[in-house]
Amino acid sequence: MTLDLSFLEVSLSPARSVQRPVNVYDILREGWRETRVDMTLQFFLDPTERHGLGSLVMDALLRLLDGAPGIDAGGHSSKRLIAKEAEGSNAWEIATQVDFIDVYAANPDLGIAVVLENKIGHVLDNPLRKYAEYAQNDGFDTVIVAVLAPEAREHSDPAQSDYLSRAVTYAELSAEIKRAPELVEFLMNPGDTDQRRSLDLLQQFIEARHGEREMTDLEDEVQRLDEWRHVLDEHRLAITAFEEARSSIGRLIRDRRKRIEPLIADRLEALSLETGWEAHGGIREETWNAYHFPSADWTVELKFSADPSRPMIYVYDRRGLTYKDSTIEPLGLSWTDSDADISDAFIERVVQILNQVKTGTRLEPGSETQATTP
């Protein structure tokens, strides 16, 4: 087999990794589930919360909604939200998941209710008319229905669009919060531990939710992408030949494993070795016949490998159905040995391992311990 592997010598620009600061939402991984974001918004939108920022975040949202039409039974009404008249109020009551409304901000003193639909990764198909009716039935004269999302959203149902006052993006909200003059004062002189920690949490929220990439990062990405496309174009035939050769080796070890599988089954039955679980499969460079023996609660596998870091034919055993106390041992036979000889040698090793497990003389536990064949 002769392959052109010159494409492996191609020099590609290294990936530049920008080290992001520690961020609680990255650590949570699922931190961007809408309910978690709803709770974060509830915390910062509430002027009376322990963050000590007052109405700063609520006021930023109001400014983005300035001039937005109110919603009544027929959709857009003649009423408009005047942000300046609502800013600075501490009478906002913020709740989440109210009659399926993500964030419900109500101000009885001002007669204003803001229905905020938080959209992270889903289509905007919510019953906005029903949400607006909830606020109207709650006794509010001015009802604003807004959607907050990573990008501007339109409702999938045109009929529901009349019940949307305005769409706001996280980038817009972040920018408006940063423009607040009082934010600088808070950052320069935090009042207490709660305020200091809240400012840090707000910064993490903005960083993670905004999600914008620097232009230099995008330029680096397009350079690497162009290089990779050029490599594929110039060496397409060689790469295709390499992948086909790799696949053929995978089929070769898979076919050997399949031929041996019934031979092992016959020998296990002859020795009355019962298995509670079996697995027969593989990946491109490795394939296996795996057997769990309930009597010893131990799993033993016969593996064929094209990976040079492993023996070509080896036995892998481990405790129960876990990967604990695992051991790797070469079977001691070569590829040219017959299927019957390989099956016999494997069964002999299985019996030996199970006896050692039952008598407590199996090798000391270790993570993929390499052992020599007896």
Question: Could you explain the architecture of this structure?
Answer:
There is one protein chain. Helices cover 41% and strands 21% of the residues. It has helices at 24-28, 34-45, 56-64, 83-86, 128-137, 158-161, 170-178, 181-188, 193-210, 215-234, 236-270, 339-359, and strands at residues 69-72, 75-80, 93-98, 101-107, 112-118, 142-149, 166-169, 277-283, 286-293, 298-305, 313-319, 327-330, 369-370. The protein has a six-stranded mixed beta sheet with strand order 8-9-10-11-12-13, with helices on one face. Strands 3-4-5-6-7 form a five-stranded mixed beta sheet, with helices on both faces. A two-stranded antiparallel sheet has the order 1-2. A hairpin with a 2-residue loop joins strand 3 and strand 4. It is elongated and about 90 Å long.
Tell me the number of helical segments per DSSP (H or I, 4 or more residues long): 12
Give the tally of β-strands: 13
Range of strand content: 15-25%
Question: What Rg is obtained from the alpha carbons, in whole angstroms?
Answer: 32 Å
The chain-level structural class is: alpha+beta
- Element-level helix/strand string: HHHEEHEEEHEHEHHHHHEEEEEHE
Mean pLDDT across the residues is 88
Q: Largest beta sheet: what is the strand line-up? A: 8-9-10-11-12-13
Helix share, percent: 40-55%
